Amino acid sequence: MKSLYFLFICLFVYSQSNSQILNEIDECFPFQGYFAAVKQDGKWGFINREGVQVINFRNDLVVEKSSQNVCNSEFESTIHPVLSDNRCLIKKLINGVYYYGYINEKGEEIIEPQFLNASNFMNGFAIIIKLVKTEIGYNELLKKQIIAEKLEEYIIDVNGNLYMFLNNIRNYVPSKNNTPPEFHSKFIAPNLIAVKNKREKWDIYKF
């Protein structure tokens, strides 16, 4: 009787130590901080270090290139979403144009999609590109306002507050393939940013 009881305990411990958390995952990436990206049926989500899925599979997460190896070598994808500073990029198609925003580590929308492009957060900050429309006149023949569209870049904090204006305003030329406009700035250190000026040179600012 004692032998059967001991066997039962051993089987229970073994089953608990080898319990399956997720199955049928197409791709999974190494952890970046506390979270790792996983993919299933074309949708992405995140798990924590206990293997608990904290963000359910969804199709609006923004993916980017990565040099990390995936768990399933059959797929060999080089792109995946990033969850950094408890923020992950999402995108939403509005009137034929993709706008970018952020969700938190629970999958809750924190910053609504409103930017033409946005970077992942780094050390509490991200770079975003805003579309600014200005009325510059009125066309009597067409009976409509003449609108000038320009791009402005800012540094934002994790709550979406505009932290710093980057002085690199430029005209907006929509892309035919809906590719987001390129950044004219980049973080080079936790408190330094390089901004491309009108002469195609880089100015470095501390923030």
Q: State Rg.
A: 23 Å
Low-confidence stretches: 4-17, 72-76
The chain-level mean pLDDT equals: 86
Global geometry: globular
Strand order of the largest sheet: 1-2-3-4
Descriptive notes:
This protein has 207 residues and is mainly β. It has a domain at 120-207. It has 1 helix and 17 strands. It has one helix at residues 2-17, and strands at 27-28, 35-40, 43-48, 53-58, 64-65, 79-80, 83-84, 87-94, 97-103, 109-115, 117-118, 125-139, 144-157, 162-171, 185-189, 192-196, 202-206. Strands 1-2-3-4 form a 4-stranded antiparallel β-sheet, with no helix packed on it. The chain has a 4-stranded antiparallel β-sheet with strand order 7-8-9-10, with no helix packed on it. Strand 1 and strand 2 form a beta hairpin.
Keywords:
4-stranded antiparallel beta sheet, 1 helix, 207 residues, 8% helix, single chain, mainly beta
Short description:
The chain is mainly β. The chain has 1 helix and 17 strands.
SSE arrangement:
Layout: H1 2-17, E1 27-28, E2 35-40, E3 43-48, E4 53-58, E5 64-65, E6 79-80, E7 83-84, E8 87-94, E9 97-103, E10 109-115, E11 117-118, E12 125-139, E13 144-157, E14 162-171, E15 185-189, E16 192-196, E17 202-206
Antiparallel strand pairs: 1-2, 2-3, 3-4, 5-6, 7-8, 8-9, 9-10, 11-12, 12-13, 13-14, 15-16, 16-17
